[in-house]
Design brief:
mainly beta, 7-stranded mixed beta sheet, 4-stranded antiparallel beta sheet, 49% strand
């Protein structure tokens, strides 16, 4: 049974930082491109970042580029999202997701429908 479990969310002031983690089990983690998505109240789920199975290719949404960093540790079956300079508009539930052998360089990597496995999400709230 595949499980993706996010952690690290919380309440932070604008300008602060948080580090999200997503621990995977039940899958061959090193074969999966991992992505982070977010969904704010009343809005559609949107792409945030993705990292290739080997960690050498990364993609970011324009809204987080330069502030967020995605990384992974294949020895620990875990993907991370370091979020710096947080803004109130970053407030959302953050989800990690996995897609087997999905090319991060492809436009498909931004499409949530390309990801087979999803976590339950972790709430991030940024106060102004």
């Amino acid at each position: 049974q595949v499980q993706l479990v996010e952690s690290g969310g919380g309440l932070v002031q604008a300008g602060g930082s948080l580090r999200l983690s997503c621990a995977a089990s039940g899958l061959t983690f090193r074969s999966y491109t991992m992505g982070w998505f977010r969904q704010a109240p009343g809005k559609e789920r949107e792409f945030v970042a993705a990292i290739s199975w080997g960690g050498d290719n990364k993609k970011y949404a324009d809204s987080v580029k330069g502030r967020f960093t995605i990384s992974r540790d294949n020895a620990k079956d875990t993907v991370y999202l370091q979020m710096n300079s947080l803004k109130p508009e970053d407030t959302a539930v953050y989800y990690c997701a996995g897609a087997m052998w999905l090319a991060v360089t492809a436009i498909r990597a931004l499409n949530l429908n390309e990801y087979r496995y999803w976590g339950q999400g972790t709430q991030v709230t940024v106060s102004s």
